């Protein structure tokens, strides 16, 4: 009898653990733009990877890298099966469109997420924008210049936070190229996250590679962004430098991203 009871207990525990397993689904190539031209219809797509048996989950809107001239939407493998939803965003590229247009695409993707994430079980109170390199730049522009989302009836206050993997804080080099400048001619204008530093911006996590190994000035730009945010009174910005890693620093950064998301949802 004792052995039978033990067997039933083990079976019950096993079934309970199995029932608690989070199940994920991925839906691809969802159009988020209202523009009807062929190029917008081709590029302005999202893939959403989300838990199907968990409610009010955190959603990370993830913008891909590629210098704003290349790249495709992605849901990073390391971020799968981690209890969150990831929305991989594709956007139009230079030189077919201007950098200012690409930022508008990114804002449209955020608007789509706020309008639809509850249909998948997510919470509009737990939306984070982030990305790698050019995608990080887009995230910083949307989070610091509040006008992009305000024009879509969304307050940046509604964002849980911003996560930037090696993003540009000065004017993006592709935007400088549009002005006839090289990547070695830094400027800070309205297309620079640094131009929009403000006390009331969302919480921010900046991660870069080693200052000696990163792309031109990338560590220093982020360090300066953190410094300037602090000087204007922003109290929740963190900058992490990954010693020994160059611009391709995504793997060591992903676990740090997940840890920060966990901390943010506890606050």
From TrEMBL:
This is Alpha/beta hydrolase. Residues 47-165 form the BD-FAE-like domain. InterPro entries: AB_hydrolase_fold, BD-FAE-like_dom, GDXG_lipolytic_enzyme. Keywords: Hydrolase. It holds the Pfam family BD-FAE. GO terms for molecular function: hydrolase activity. PANTHER family: AB HYDROLASE SUPERFAMILY PROTEIN C4A8.06C (PTHR48081), CARBOXYLESTERASE (PTHR48081:SF9). Signal peptide: none annotated.
């Amino acid at each position: 009898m004792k052995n039978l009871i033990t067997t039933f207990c083990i079976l019950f525990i096993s079934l309970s653990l199995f029932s608690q397993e989070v199940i994920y689904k991925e839906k691809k190539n969802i159009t988020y733009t209202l523009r009807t031209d062929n190029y917008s219809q081709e590029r302005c797509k999202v893939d959403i990877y989300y838990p199907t048996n968990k409610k009010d989950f955190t959603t990370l809107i993830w913008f891909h890298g590629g210098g704003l001239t290349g790249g495709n939407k992605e849901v990073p493998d390391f971020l799968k099966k981690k209890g969150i939803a990831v929305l991989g965003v594709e956007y139009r590229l230079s030189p077919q469109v201007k950098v200012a247009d690409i930022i508008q695409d990114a804002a449209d993707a955020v608007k789509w997420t706020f309008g639809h994430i509850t249909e998948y079980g997510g919470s509009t109170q737990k939306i984070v924008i982030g990305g790698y390199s050019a995608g990080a730049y887009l995230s910083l522009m949307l989070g610091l210049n509040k006008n992009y989302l305000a024009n879509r009836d969304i307050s940046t206050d509604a964002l849980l936070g911003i996560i930037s993997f090696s993003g540009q804080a000065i004017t993006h080099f592709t935007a400088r190229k549009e002005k006839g400048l090289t990547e070695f001619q830094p400027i800070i204008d309205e297309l620079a996250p640094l131009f929009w530093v403000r006390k009331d911006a969302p919480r921010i996590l900046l991660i870069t590679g080693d200052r000696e190994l990163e792309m031109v000035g990338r560590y220093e730009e982020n360090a300066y962004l953190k410094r300037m945010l602090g000087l204007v009174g922003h109290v929740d910005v963190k900058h992490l430098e990954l010693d020994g890693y160059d611009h391709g620093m995504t793997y060591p950064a992903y676990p740090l991203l997940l840890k920060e998301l966990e901390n943010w949802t506890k606050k």
